[in-house]
Amino acid sequence: GAGVSQSPRYKVAKRGQDVALRCDPISGHVSLFWYQQALGQGPEFLTYFQNEAQLDKSGLPSDRFFAERPEGSVSTLKIQRTQQEDSAVYLCASSLLPPGTGAEKLFFGSGTQLSVL
Amino acid sequence: DQQVKQNSPSLSVQEGRISILNCDYTNSMFDYFLWYKKYPAEGPTFLISISSIKDKNEDGRFTVFLNKSAKHLSLHIVPSQPGDSAVYFCAASVGGGADGLTFGKGTHLIIQP
């Protein structure tokens, strides 16, 4: 497809379980962002990749969160030992060019809704 | 501390009238502002943006106004259509978004027939 694809669409995890969320950005897009959106809130920045380099991970809430983009295309967000407060929609977004180049229009996927019981 | 604030959780407007969505920010370093529209079960989609060097940007039915001295921006939709019913997020960035976008909590716009 032409858009950003995320899988799974829904994920239910038991507290303490590890989860992996996948993002397929638009082909050729250099920048990839992960956002977390809690219920009733706006998306909050987690981390940013430029190609395969993770340039900013300041938004990751704890060391249980880990993201990678090893070949500069597909990205995975991993959450270890999930907690109830991790329940949220995790959004992936990509853009053609790096930030600061006038390409701040991010294209978002539909997100993965994570529920931790 | 919310750096981007959308103080109206919801707004109801009659079809054909003007919809005005408001957004305030506190970080004077923000230099680029965007509006995103979100339907249920979908990701946000880009609507319109404005650089801090401008005070107005127009695209069809959508116009964004920026008042830097008041740290306020607004999105005007005219005329409002039923398909405009969605959640609208205001977002801001510093230096082109290298640190990601900072979003408001959103305003749910409901267009009444």
Structure description:
The complex is a heterodimer of chains A (117) and B (113). With 117 residues, chain A is mainly beta. Chain A has no helices and eleven strands. Chain A has strands at 5-7, 10-13, 19-24, 31-37, 44-50, 53-56, 65-68, 75-79, 88-95, 107-108, 112-116. In chain A, the strands form two sheets. In chain A, strands 2, 4, 5, 6, 9, 10 and 11 form a seven-stranded mixed beta sheet that branches. Chain A has a four-stranded antiparallel beta sheet with strand order 1-3-8-7, with no helix packed on it. The mean pLDDT of chain A is 92. Helix content of chain B is 0%, strand content 53%. Chain B has strands at 4-5, 10-14, 19-25, 32-38, 45-51, 56-59, 62-67, 72-77, 86-93, 102-103, 107-112. In chain B, a hairpin with a 6-residue loop joins strand 4 and strand 5 (45-51). The interface between A and B is medium-sized, with 29 and 27 residues.
Biggest β-sheet description of chain A: 7 strands, mixed
Spans of at least 5 consecutive residues with low confidence of chain B: none
What's the total count of β strands of chain A? 11
Query: Helix proportion of residues of chain B, in percent?
Result: under 10%
Helicity range of chain A: under 10%
Instruction: Return residue spans of chain A where pLDDT drops below 50 for at least 5 consecutive residues.
Output: none
Per the principal axes of the C-alpha atoms, what is the gross shape of chain A?
A: globular
Order of helices and strands of chain A: EEEEEEEEEEE
Short synopsis of the structure:
The complex is a heterodimer of chains A (117) and B (113). Chain A is mainly β and 117 residues long.
